[in-house]
TrEMBL record:
GO terms for cellular component: cytoplasm; membrane. Keywords: Cytoplasm, Protein transport, Transport. It comes from the Eukaryota. It comes from Paralvinella palmiformis. InterPro entries: ARM-type_fold, Clathrin_H-chain/VPS_repeat, CNH_dom, Vam6/VPS39/TRAP1, VPS39/TGF_beta_rcpt-assoc_1, VPS39/TGFA1_Znf. CHCR repeats lie at residues 562-727. It is found in: Cytoplasm. This is CNH domain-containing protein. Residues 23-295 form the CNH domain.
Length: 875
């Protein structure tokens, strides 16, 4: 596929040549800077100054001025020219003789060496030793050899001589490697080591041998079949061959293009993909040369310049043709064409983005995504081509000049809904990938707005995650999209995430009332959970009634869970206020009071009394209802009993009065127990309820954590009730009385038991009790004895340690000094540490630490002891 890489511009036409002779023909050319040298068939060298000018139409044209000429006084054509600007010299090959001329006046250098029998020569552009005052050339001679010369201002010095099997026709040198063509074979020779590498043969009758240097240790050679073969110094090829036309005359390399001249055309191939990019008609071409970036082509009478089209224009032309890969490949090598690095980076990024939009338009989404990422696309450029996705509040302005010619997705897809959906899914994928990365800087709002709209339409399950994060979308711009797709719950969450709790709660209220529909809305429980956690009591009071009317058990969780949440401590609702508020909702107020009493362990009397009264009212209501199930009533009474038994903060007398009227005997027993009126409580359990197990359990529960004497008295009260001589039915209590005596958990004073037991009871009936009582008494005696002996032993040990501490005496005299301050002891008291250090009491701040040595004394070592015997022995 073609691309215009060069323009052919006239440089010097025949009318400008010096010779009037019709046979004057151009045989070779050379350019160095602005200096253009022409070799002719009649042994002339003509010097021109040539400059590029830009015309009013913006096109480049060349202006030349003739500087002079030199006739070499020979009859053969000038075969080859090569300028050496560092030396101000020009090498000329004519009649197989290589000579030096001055670059400017074309005068021969008389002191310069002349080399005879030369077939051709070339310049080493990559010598081993670089010297600014000399150049290195390779010369092929008729005597079947190659010679390396060092050229200076005034002479050419032979460095190396390399023999060959035949006369070298042409060659090219790079470093120490010479690529040369003998009459039938190409070779690569290392002139330092003498190593020879065969390349491939050719037929000189059909192939004109041409060698061009490409890069370091790499050459391009003309080959059979009109091929251009690449060859490295090792003899291998790293690139596929080029396909040329027949009758090749000359080949040059100007990165990244190889230009080939035949008698009709100049063809341009890229070494990036080995494809022909341009073909320029040029009749009668004789010579093609590249001179430090300038390219000239000559026929026998005229010289033209090939002006490179700026690489940016070439790339844009490729992009217009949608040849993305070629454009990118060309862009990647643009730095080698002399473009400034910073300019190149900006240009390359823009090219990547243009290429990305081309791939995008072709639905090559993977390639487009890679190019957008590497080109650092401002994602708003892509969002903007999706109708209505770019936030209306965005200040984004599209890139100028534009990166693409896409009007919008609808136009691109020609209204095909399936293709539009595919493009939207790609945008979702791309936005998700870059979300939260450095690629979103400055576009957070636009990205989130686009995602909300896209999710509302295509991925509703992803909306909660986006909204729950730090969503920076334009809420007002998203509302129509969310409402259009019935995403009312997500809209409420969006309002919530932006702090508009009232709007969010209003939407959820409508959803619960079924004024709106949204399958994703979880229901009342979600709204309750939301009100539980927002730090806004005003919203709680505003919407709590609605939720309590819908479901008291769920609604009351607002207040229960808020009081349990540390996050709501700054906005905590007063419990008194909540209780008053919930008084209209009987189920809710009970649950809230249970939370305060049982979970929060509140000891406020009114809460306990209120809950007890509500439990009692529930029991009364169920008792009056003739349709009440027994299980339901038993459960209500069980809750009341649990409250009465476990709490100690309610008004007992108030509850007792009510339960007595209703003859709720178990509850009465519990209340009497709370009043420490255990005889009444046990009397009810025994005589009213005849529940002997409950009576025993009552004693066990109420004796828990009490002292032994209290436990004995409590169990004695129950036994006395069983064995009351005034009770006409006392015989029926014999069995429970015996069971009580034999209960291992019961404690009794055996003497008092024996005093109340009827005389007619047999020893056998009491044997188990008596045996157990004797064992318990014996065990208590023995344990007491052991404790007394242990205490006595500990006392003796302490006395022994005290005696040991007092056994060592010390003598205090007037010449004794305080170890801390060095003053005499003037008071009757002083301090002595276990290590013998004595100080004033005021100089000893810590009795465990010696103030002189800093030694720490433990309790087992003893502590500093004060003494009061001044001038006497202290014991």
């Amino acid at each position: 596929m073609s691309v215009r890489a060069f323009d052919l511009v006239p440089a010097i036409e025949r009318a400008q040549l010096i010779s009037d002779k019709a046979k004057t023909e151009i045989t070779c050319i050379e350019c160095c800077g602005k200096n253009l040298y022409i070799g002719t068939g009649d042994c002339l060298i003509i010097h021109y100054i040539i400059e590029e000018k830009i015309g009013s139409n913006g096109k480049i044209h060349l202006v030349s001025e003739k500087q002079g000429y030199r006739h070499l006084a020979l009859k053969k054509p000038v075969s080859q020219l090569k300028a050496a600007s560092a030396l101000n010299r020009i090498l000329v090959l004519c009649d197989n003789m290589l000579v030096l001329l001055n670059m400017f006046d074309l005068e021969p250098i008389l002191s310069g060496t002349r080399i005879k029998n030369v077939v051709s020569f070339c310049l080493n552009e990559n010598p081993i030793k670089s010297n600014p005052f000399s150049i290195e050339i390779c010369v092929s001679l008729k005597k079947k050899c190659l010679q390396i010369y060092k050229v200076t201002e005034d002479k050419m010095t032979l460095i190396r001589d390399v023999s060959t099997t035949d006369i070298p026709i042409t060659m090219c040198i790079d470093g120490t490697f010479i690529c040369t063509a003998l009459p039938t074979q190409y070779y690569i020779i290392n002139y330092v080591t003498g190593g020879v590498q065969d390349l491939f043969p050719y037929d000189s009758n059909h192939v004109r041998p041409i060698i061009t240097r490409i890069t370091r240790e790499e050459f391009l050679l003309s080959a059979p079949g009109a091929l251009g073969m690449f060859a490295s110094a090792s003899g291998t090829s790293q690139r596929p061959p080029l396909q040329w036309s027949e009758n090749l005359v000359s080949v040059i390399y100007s990165h990244p293009y190889c230009l080939a001249l035949n008698d009709e055309f100049i063809t341009v191939h890229s070494i990036l993909d080995q494809q022909q990019k341009q073909s320029i008609p040029f009749q009668g071409g004789q010579h093609l040369g590249e001179f430090d970036g300038k390219i000239f082509v000559a026929s026998a009478q005229d010289i033209y310049a090939l002006i490179p089209i700026p690489v940016e224009k070439q790339i844009q032309a490729l992009l217009v043709d949608k040849r993305v890969k070629e454009a990118l490949d060309l862009a990647q090598v643009a730095t080698k064409t002399g473009i400034d690095k910073e300019k190149f980076l900006k240009m390359y990024q823009r090219i990547q983005l243009q290429a990305g939009f081309i791939e995008f338009s072709e639905m090559n989404f993977d390639e487009a995504q890679k190019l957008f990422r590497s080109g650092r696309l401002d994602v708003r450029e892509m969002i903007a081509i999706y109708p209505h996705l770019l936030a209306t509040s965005s200040r984004f302005v599209k890139c100028l000049p534009p990166l693409h010619d896409i009007a919008d997705i609808v136009q691109l897809c020609r209204g095909e809904e399936d293709r539009i959906i595919e493009y939207k899914r790609f945008l979702i994928s791309y936005l998700e990938e870059i979300h939260g990365t450095r690629h979103t800087l400055g576009a957070h709002m636009e990205i989130d707005t686009a995602l909300v709209k896209l999710y509302a339409e295509l991925k509703p399950d992803e909306l909660p995650i986006l909204v729950a994060s730090d969503c920076a979308c334009d809420v007002g711009d998203c509302i129509p999209y969310l409402e259009k797709h019935n995403r009312h719950h997500m809209l409420a969450l969006l309002h919530s995430s932006h702090g508009d709790h009232d709007r969010a709660l209003g939407i959820w209220t409508k959803l619960i009332k079924t004024e709106m529909e949204d399958e994703s809305f979880p229901g009342v429980a979600f709204m309750v959970e939301y009100l539980t956690h927002i730090n806004n009591s005003e919203m709680v009071w505003k919407y709590a009634d609605f939720l309590l009317e819908k479901d008291q058990l769920l609604g009351v969780k607002i207040f229960i869970d808020r009081s349990s949440s540390p996050a709501q401590s700054e906005d905590e609702l007063p419990s008194d206020q909540v209780v008053d508020y919930l008084s209209r909702y009987p189920v809710a107020v009970v649950k809230y009071l249970e939370h305060l009493v049982f979970e929060c362990k509140s000891e406020v009397e009114k809460y306990h009394t209120h809950l007890s009264v509500l439990y009692l009212d529930s029991v009364i209501r169920l008792m009056k209802d003739t349709n009440t199930q027994k299980e339901e009533l038993d459960k209500a009474r069980s809750e009341l009993c649990r409250m009465l038994q476990t709490s100690s903060h309610y008004r007992i007398q108030l509850i007792l009065g009510k339960v007595t009227e209703l003859e709720l005997y178990p509850e009465c027993a519990i209340l009497y127990g709370k009043l420490e009126e255990h005889d009444k409580a046990l009397g009810i359990l025994v005589h009213k309820l005849r529940d002997f197990d409950a009576a025993e359990n009552y004693c066990i529960v109420n004796a828990k954590d009490r002292d032994l004497n209290f436990r004995k008295r409590l169990f004695q009260v129950l036994l006395s009730i069983y064995l009351d001589p005034n009770n006409e039915r006392r015989d029926s209590f014999v069995a429970p009385a015996v069971a009580l005596l034999n209960n291992n958990k019961a404690d009794f004073d055996m003497i008092k038991v024996l005093q109340v037991i009827p005389d007619h009871w047999s020893i056998g009936l009491l044997s188990r009790f008596l045996t157990s009582s004797v064992r318990k008494a014996t065990n208590r005696y023995r344990m007491t004895h052991i404790q007394r002996m242990l205490a006595r032993g500990e006392n003796l040990q302490l006395k022994s340690e005290h005696i040991e501490l007092l056994r060592d005496g010390l003598k205090m005299t007037d010449d004794k000094l305080c170890a801390v301050c060095g003053e005499r002891f003037s008071e009757v008291t002083f301090v002595r540490y276990p290590n013998g250090i004595m100080t004033h009491t005021s100089c000893a701040p810590n009795k465990y630490i010696c103030p002189v040595t800093g030694k720490l004394f433990s309790a087992t070592q003893g502590t500093a002891l004060p003494s009061v015997d001044h001038n006497h022995d202290a014991r």
